[in-house]
Amino acid sequence: MRVVGENIQPGIYPIKEALQLSQDQELDLVEISPTANPPVCKIIDYKKFLYEQKKKQKETKAKAAKVIVKEIRLSPNTDEHDFNFKLKHTIKFLEEGAKVKVDVFFKGRSILYKEKGEIILLKFADAIIDYGKIEQLPRLEGKRMIMIISPKKK
After folding, report:
1. What distance in Å separates the CA atoms of residue 117 and residue 72, rounded to the nearest whole number?
2. Residue 3 in contact with residue 42, Cβ under 8 Å?
3. Phi, psi (degrees; rounded to nearest 5) at 142
């Protein structure tokens, strides 16, 4: 096996000799690349190695973008003032980088006016076109018509 590490001459050693080298330094022999020919092992402190791996995983997890989805609910009979109020909130959410899920909820027999709900959602999409792009066009799911808007890249 190929042995690498600090304070040791990198090279190919028999298994017993590699184990002896690691014991002389009071460190562990860790197999880094088992698929290589010959397999690569490194003489290191295994606890420190695990600690550094966890630290790297935490860093990559922290750097990963967290997608926040905010929800705005309208009704088929939402009047102009409420519409503008919810529009301002949606614009604020999009500027913060959050996705927005806009839905029209149909209560009772108002499901008969699906076109009203779709018209409101399309009007909403048209009003925020400068701040976000439509990721999913309005579609009916049960008693709700849903549209998803994602923020525009700057």
Report:
1. 14
2. yes
3. 70, -120
Whether the model clears a pTM of 0.70, i.e. scores above it, the answer is no
Tens of pLDDT along the chain (154 residues) come to 888 888 788 888 888 988 888 888 888 888 888 888 889 988 888 898 899 999 999 988 887 777 888 999 988 888 899 999 999 999 999 988 889 999 998 888 878 878 888 889 889 889 998 888 988 888 888 888 999 999 987 6
Rounded distance between C-alpha atoms, residue 67 and residue 100, angstroms: 10
**C-alpha distances in Å from residue 97, one per residue of 59, 77, 87:** 21, 29, 15
The full set of domains in the chain, from first to last, is 2-61 (3.10.20.80), 69-151 (3.30.110.10)
Sheet holding 144-151, edge to edge: 69-74, 99-105, 144-151, 132-141
Q: Give the span between the Cα atoms of 114 and 106, in whole angstroms.
A: 8
